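Researcher: Structure for this, please.
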Amino acid sequence: MNESQVKRATASLSTEDAALYAGWFKALADPMRVRVLNLLATERRPMAVGEIVEQLPIGQPTVSHHLKILADVRFVLAERIGTSTRYQVNGACLECFPAAVRAITAQT
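Model: Predicted structure, token format:
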């Protein structure tokens, strides 16, 4: 990429979008968070923390911590049912994330 292409690519991405996308990538910077998100996407149903713990090699506090980070960037949605919380992939992120990657890489 030459200098004018770099300037065009960075100029087309707003400061707000760049900050948003950076937050998304930061949330995915941990391999276990990627695995949690993959598990929820694969299951395609709301899951309790205990169900997630049963399928991953980490404990409940760590799973809860990862779910909070994923929920903060809205990759995961939490739904309270009585005293339990169920987590599922935010369907909108399945569309928005690839679009963000295309925007970052100046693809159409």
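Researcher: Any notable elements?
Model: The CA atoms of residues 52 and 63 lie 7 Å apart. Confidence is low (pLDDT under 50) at residues 1-10.
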